[in-house]
Design a protein that fits this description.
- The chain is about 40% helix and about 20% strand.
- By secondary structure, it is α/β, with parallel strands linked by helices.
- It has a 6-stranded mixed beta sheet with strand order 1-4-3-2-5-6, with helices on both faces.
- The radius of gyration is 18 Å and the shape is globular.
Length: about 160
């Protein structure tokens, strides 16, 4: 009887751990050469790739708005890339607070240098927040600064 109780306890703990683990999507590393791979994930649909930083005051203000947008438009194709050199725990804390823990989240795995920025957009100097929109034809446009969330649905 004791063995059965222990078995069920282990089953319950595994189930609870699975639920807790499912609540957060993994942070994925982004590095040089990944830009073209990310662009291919659009499969001809419009998408946005949003660059943000934990230490960026405008980003801290804006990220909860992105969370609300994703909740309202769950089929919108948005990728988030965190650019600061901070711990994964700091990134995850901000994503959790913004309601983006299940979003498609990346972090810059190496230093965010000129080569990496140039690969993304030769005219971009790395300021955050920045969103790069890819339309259904693969043409890109860049928006630096806070997003107008009333206009965002028409882009995605």
């Amino acid at each position: 009887m004791k063995a059965i109780k222990q078995y069920w306890l282990v089953c319950v703990l595994i189930f609870v751990a699975g639920i807790a683990g499912a609540a957060t999507a993994p942070l994925k590393p982004y590095q040089s050469g990944d830009w073209l791979r990310l662009l291919k994930t659009s499969n001809g649909a419009p998408m946005a790739i949003h660059f943000w930083g934990v230490t960026c005051p405008a980003c801290v203000k804006e990220m909860p708005q992105w969370g609300a947008f994703i909740k309202r438009y769950p089929n919108a194709k948005v990728i988030f890339i965190q650019v600061d050199d901070v711990s994964p725990e700091m990134m995850q804390k901000m994503l959790d607070k913004a309601g983006l823990e299940k979003a498609n989240n990346y972090y810059i795995a190496s230093s965010f240098d000129e080569r990496l920025r140039y690969e993304i957009d030769p005219q971009w100097h790395g300021e955050t927040p920045t969103t790069i929109f890819i339309d259904k034809n693969g043409k890109s446009s860049r928006k630096t600064g806070l997003m107008n969330f009333q206009q965002l649905p028409s882009k995605l």
